[in-house]
Structures are given as C-alpha cells and as structure tokens.
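Reminder to self: tokens first, then the designed residues, so the page reads top to bottom the way the pipeline ran.
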C-alpha cells in the first residue's frame, strides 16, 4: 500500500508542470509596478501587439527587453464589447489574450520583437500553448501599420525554417484593445511564488536567458 502511494505521489509530481494552466485568482496580490505612460509618451513610441498563449508569459518576456518601455496585458480580436477575463476564459468571445508593447524604435526594431515572439512560444500549435487550450490562447500578430504587416509576413516565412510543423500564427489588423483587469498586469513580478510562475514562466525566462 505504501509503495502504491509513493508511486501515485511521484506520478502527480511529474505531471504537475504539464497540467498547471493560466487560471487567475481574481484578486490583486500586491501593488503593480509603476509603468503607466502618459498619452504624450505613448504617442512618442511605437506599438506592437502579440498573442502567444497566456499573456502572463508574454508580458514577462517582453518586459525584459531593452527598448521596451511598457507592456500591458489585454484582449483583442473579438466581438464582445468590454470583455472580462471570465468571459474571455470561455473561449466564446473571439478575443485573444494579447500584450500591447510600447517600444522605442531607435533602440529595438519591430523585427527584433518578432524574433523574440518566435523564440518565446510555439507558433505551430493551433489555439494552444502547453496546458492552455482555447482560441483565446491563439498565436497572433495584430499589425498597426502596413510596414508591420509586411515585416510580420516576412518574419513568419523566415521563422518557418526553425520549425518542423507549419506556423499557424495569424497576421491581422489591430482592432480595439481592451486592457485586462489590474491583477493581470505585471503578473510575474507580483506573483513569483505562484505555481504557474514557478512551473511555467520562470523556466521559460531562464531558457531565454532573461532571468537572473
């Protein structure tokens, strides 16, 4: 009986990293780090919007890049007005979880951000990243200009050489952005001891050499 219990415990521990999904506890665990930009500051910067699975992961990656001034988690690409996280989680609103990235193009180019996008998630899995499954987790590039669209198409084509399966990332015009609830912002920085952060986000950042 004891041996069977130990075996069961071992199996649970081995499977745990693969079953932890992007599910939020709806409360703010600590004050978010100051990162709000004024409208004047936003207008002086370029904007990129990516979907690559759970926005907690994507936000944590791009916040660490030089030239990125702010990253906001939110929703884009759906039909429901003013969607909530609870609605998004049903996968029926049409929205994707996205990160809106404000960056200084004199320091980091849009093409470089695209390179990080391909490196930081699996763009070959349709509507899925790890244990996070649903259209809200789809891989997507929402372009803000024709130049971004052209760069995204070229980058996607070049990135295909790094993957055995076809890239399924959609490239579509940016639509209305709905910022996510406060407790989603700076999620990793504010919740580093949470299971999802320890099992999913931290190892990803370490793999990308973005975590000391």
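Designed residues (212 positions):
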């Amino acid at each position: 009986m004891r041996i069977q219990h130990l075996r069961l415990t071992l199996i649970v521990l081995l499977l745990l990293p693969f079953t932890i999904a992007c599910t939020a506890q709806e409360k703010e665990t600590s004050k978010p780090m100051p990162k709000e930009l004024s409208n004047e500051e936003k207008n002086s910067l370029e904007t990129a919007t990516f979907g690559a699975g759970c926005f907690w992961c994507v936000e944590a990656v791009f916040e660490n890049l030089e030239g990125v001034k702010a990253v906001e988690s939110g929703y884009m690409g759906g039909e429901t007005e003013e969607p909530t996280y609870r609605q998004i989680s049903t996968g029926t609103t049409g929205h994707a979880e996205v990160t809106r990235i404000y960056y200084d193009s004199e320091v980091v180019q849009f093409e470089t951000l695209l390179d990080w996008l391909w490196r930081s998630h699996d763009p070959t899995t349709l509507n899925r990243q790890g244990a996070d499954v649903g259209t809200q987790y789809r891989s997507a590039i929402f372009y803000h200009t024709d130049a971004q669209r052209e760069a995204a198409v070229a980058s996607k084509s070049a990135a295909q050489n790094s993957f055995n399966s076809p890239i399924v990332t959609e490239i579509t015009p940016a639509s209305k952005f709905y910022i996510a609830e406060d407790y989603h912002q700076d999620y990793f920085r504010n919740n580093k001891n949470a299971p999802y952060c320890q099992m999913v986000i931290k190892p990803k950042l370490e793999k990308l050499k973005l975590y000391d």
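The domain at 42-207 is CATH 3.30.1060.10 (Peptide Methionine Sulfoxide Reductase; Chain A).
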